[in-house]
Structures are given as C-alpha cells and as structure tokens.
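Project outcomes to date are best conveyed with an example. Our students and postdoctoral researchers have been running inverse folding experiments weekly, and each run begins with a structure described purely in tokens. The record below, which covers 341 residues, was selected by the lab manager from last quarter's runs and is presented without edits.
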C-alpha cells in the first residue's frame, strides 16, 4: 500500500524530532551536508498514518498556546530515537560519481598568437579593450599603449570604462592620422599548446584537466612523490594513439603510485586513528588536486567565498605522501575499499 504525504509534513516531523540538530547547530535543515538526504529518508520511512495523526493532534493542542510553536511536544517514535538516528547518520560515507570520460572541450575557443621572439615561453592574444580585466592591463605588450590605457582606466573597470566607442583612447600613428585604440595584444595568463599543422597550426589553451598522476622517486635525499597534471587534450591524444590514458610506464628509478580523476576518493588518516575520506573536485596546475570531504555539499561559490569562511583545499603529490594518503573506492552503498592505480 502506497501512501503519499506532503513534503511539509516531513519538515514538521524532522523539526519536532530534533533531527535538524544532527547536521546543524541551529534547529533548521542544513543542505551543506549530503547526509541530509539520509535524514529525510529516515523521516519518510517513519511517516505513517499514526505519526500524521500525532502531528495533527499536536497542532490542535498548540492552538490555544502562547508563543510561536505550531505544535505541542510530540513523542519520539521509540526510546533513544535521536541517539540511534545519529549513530546511523554519522558513519555514512557518501558515494560520488567518477568522471573519467574524455568527452568535453579539448581546448578553449580562443586562438592565441605565436610566442614572441623576445619571449619564446609566452604567447599573446588580441582582445578588445572592453573585454580586458583589471589584472590584464599590465600584460599589454606595447608599452606606449599600456601606459595610455592604464591612464584612461584610472581606478575604474575596463569593461565599464570602454563600453562606448567614444570612450576609447586615441593615438597618433606614424602617418599622422589619429585613430581610436580598439584592440591590444595581451600576454596570455595561461600556458598554451600547439594543435594542428601547416596552415591549421594554432596555439590554444587547454580546455580542462583530465587527471593527476603521482610518481614516486627515490634519491639520496629520500623518497618523494611527484605529480603530473594531464589535460583532457593530452589524454585524448594518448587514447587515439592506442596508449593507456594514464601513463604507467616509468623509468627504473620511479614507481607509479596512482592517478586521481574528479569524483575519485582519497583516504587520509588522522592522528587520532580516524580516517577522513575526501573526493577530488579537479586538478589545478602546480597546486595538485582540489578535494573536499565526501559529505560536503557546499557549492563552489560557498567554498570560494572567504567572507563566509570558505576555503579551497589543494594537495600536491608530496603533501599526499606526508599525509599517508591512499586511493580508495566508495561503493554506491557507502562501502570503502582500497583502490589500485
């Protein structure tokens, strides 16, 4: 027999049974922890006709009472109910979907110019003045234009200052003609790579990183874990060449430890003996992998927002070695198993 109840009923029972306090200091539902779904599931399972009648009776008893309470106190389903639900919720390990797919943009749409002869390690791109950010102003190649534009912007935002054509600065060319400056060459703030050949050869920036591979090297100074970030483009090129997406072939003095893709998990022991399980959000350059606890349901904006206590957490290969981290697999029902590479 299937019985449907209003979602508000679940919210009322969750609050009256004090279950909001399991994941939050305040008596309100917290969506910053994925385990709130498990608490809702427990309440739904216990929302029987008997509990709905008890809720209705509690509302009737509270009608004449003073204050803000909607319900009179409701008896818990059984003795030590709160403690038993807490004991069931606390050890839950949330399972995440692993994203190993190679689908997606292999590189960004912007095509960069070839590196300059004076600086072979960098490339540049032509951008409209209204598309420049404040930090890009110092990267303008031409020093004369750089000084002119920085002076025109002042303390403002280039995107707002140069919205209208009449606000664009002017410069007198060698032919004596006064022209408005609409575009400038700006140094690329990110590494570029070459794709295509011949007339189709162009410089692009990676469309995203696919995984981080960790390798162990042993020298006289000791053991060290080095990591290598592999872009989606590089992984796709290896796959098309018939090679393994993850490069496990290493020199004799090096050992392959494991690789980490978004959605894969790490187990890191505490000094107390407990083990925290983290999930990989992505790979970022020299910083390594960005991770969060598997139960953390905060949005990217909340994690980045320092005003509300947000903080991003990155681990390099060497940091993972010092933390005695290991790669694990979390099954769909929350079981944790050791993983290979």
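After processing, the design step wrote out the following sequence:
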């Amino acid at each position: 027999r299937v019985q449907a109840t209003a979602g508000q009923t679940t919210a009322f029972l969750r609050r009256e049974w004090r279950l909001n306090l399991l994941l939050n200091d305040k008596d309100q539902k917290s969506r910053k922890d994925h385990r709130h779904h498990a608490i809702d599931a427990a309440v739904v399972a216990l929302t029987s006709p008997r509990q709905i009648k008890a809720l209705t009776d509690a509302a009737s008893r509270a009608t004449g009472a003073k204050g803000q309470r909607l319900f009179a106190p409701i008896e818990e389903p059984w003795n030590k109910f709160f403690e038993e639900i807490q004991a069931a919720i606390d050890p839950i390990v949330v399972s995440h979907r692993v994203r190993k797919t190679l689908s997606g943009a292999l590189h960004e749409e912007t095509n960069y110019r070839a590196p300059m002869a004076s600086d072979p390690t960098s490339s540049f791109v032509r951008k409209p003045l209204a598309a420049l950010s404040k930090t890009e102003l110092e990267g303008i190649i031409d020093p004369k234009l750089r000084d002119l534009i920085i002076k025109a912007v002042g303390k403002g935002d280039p995107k707002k200052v140069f919205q209208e054509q009449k606000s664009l600065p002017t410069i007198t060319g060698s032919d004596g003609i006064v022209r408005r400056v609409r575009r400038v060459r700006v140094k690329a703030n990110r590494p570029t790579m070459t794709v295509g050949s011949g007339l189709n050869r162009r410089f692009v920036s990676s469309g995203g990183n696919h995984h981080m591979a960790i390798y162990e090297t042993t020298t006289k100074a000791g053991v060290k874990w080095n990591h290598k970030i592999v872009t989606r483009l590089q992984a796709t090129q290896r796959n098309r060449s018939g090679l393994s997406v993850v490069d496990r072939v290493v020199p004799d003095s090096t050992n392959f430890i494991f690789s980490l893709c978004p959605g894969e998990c790490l187990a890191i022991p505490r000094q107390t003996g407990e083990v925290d399980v983290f999930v990989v959000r992505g790979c970022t350059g020299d910083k390594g992998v960005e991770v969060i606890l598997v139960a953390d349901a905060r949005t990217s904006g909340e994690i980045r927002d320092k005003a509300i206590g947000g903080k991003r957490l990155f681990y390099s290969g060497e940091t993972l070695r010092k933390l005695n981290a290991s790669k694990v697999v979390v099954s769909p029902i929350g079981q944790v198993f050791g993983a290979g590479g």
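The chain has nine helices and 16 strands. The first strand starts at residue 107 and ends at 112. The training component of this project remains on track.
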